[in-house]
């Protein structure tokens, strides 16, 4: 009598590993999209480094503005004292700008991931870290695009290049670009359905715009 050899019941298949995550299991995203669309740890780190470097580069024109203000306030101060004061003021302003951009990136990442995970049927397979990185990079793309736009305006329209970084935290028409970047992150990368992607991008954009309006000018 022959013996039928089948698959042993109760034996689960091993998860597929993604080497770029250092052995972490590859899981589907929140809305069923493939996890390979989500940015890897390396891509996320490179994106953040590029964001901070570009922000610091656009802070360089602040040096002349800070020096000019010090010379107006302290007309009799020697050049050495003005130079030291300019260096301190510029370093403080640049550090504050970098911290602000970084913190906002973290907030957009966490809030975006929480929004997509909310009321998700299968939270066990939700790649929270991957989705968080996606929304953080979407914020970074918005910042880089706005900085580039401000640079073009300064080149052709005579705008002040020193105002490019401070303009990042002002509510203006560029918020439409932020909405588009967040929508792309939620829909194309995280794989969310259109209603959830639109709601997530719209909510985050409105929250950010409302916060900017409440801040003292």
Q: What features would you describe in this structure?
A:
The chain has a two-stranded antiparallel ribbon with strand order 1-2. The protein is built from six helices and two strands. Mean pLDDT is 84; it is low at 1-34. With 217 residues, the protein is an all-alpha fold. The protein has helices at residues 41-58, 62-73, 79-117, 128-156, 175-189, 194-214; strands spanning 17-18, 24-25. A hairpin with a 5-residue loop joins β1 and β2. The longest helix is centred in the middle third of the chain and has 39 residues, at 79-117. α1 (41-58) packs parallel to α4 (128-156), α2 (62-73) packs across α3 and α3 crosses α4 (128-156).
Please outline what is shown here:
The protein has six helices and two strands.
Key terms:
217 residues, single chain, 6 helices, mainly alpha, two-stranded antiparallel sheet
């Amino acid at each position: 009598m022959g013996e039928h050899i089948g698959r042993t019941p109760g034996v689960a298949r091993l998860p597929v590993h993604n080497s770029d995550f250092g052995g972490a299991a590859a899981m589907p995203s929140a809305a069923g999209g493939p996890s390979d669309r989500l940015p890897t740890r390396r891509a996320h780190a490179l994106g953040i480094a590029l964001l901070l470097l570009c922000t610091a580069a656009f802070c360089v024109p602040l040096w002349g503005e800070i020096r000019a203000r010090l010379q107006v306030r302290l007309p009799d101060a020697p050049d050495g004292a003005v130079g030291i004061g300019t260096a301190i003021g510029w370093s403080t302003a640049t550090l504050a700008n970098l911290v602000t951009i970084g913190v906002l990136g973290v907030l957009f990442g966490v809030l975006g991931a929480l929004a997509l995970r909310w009321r998700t049927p299968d939270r066990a397979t939700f790649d929270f870290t991957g989705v968080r990185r996606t929304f953080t990079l979407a914020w970074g793309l918005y910042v880089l695009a706005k900085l580039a736009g401000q640079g073009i305006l300064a080149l052709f329209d005579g705008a002040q290049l020193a105002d490019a970084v401070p303009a990042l935290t002002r509510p203006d028409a560029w918020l439409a670009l932020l909405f588009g970047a967040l929508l792309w992150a939620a829909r194309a990368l995280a794989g969310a359905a259109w209603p959830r992607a639109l709601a997530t991008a719209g909510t985050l954009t409105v929250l950010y715009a409302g916060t900017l309006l409440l801040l003292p000018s």
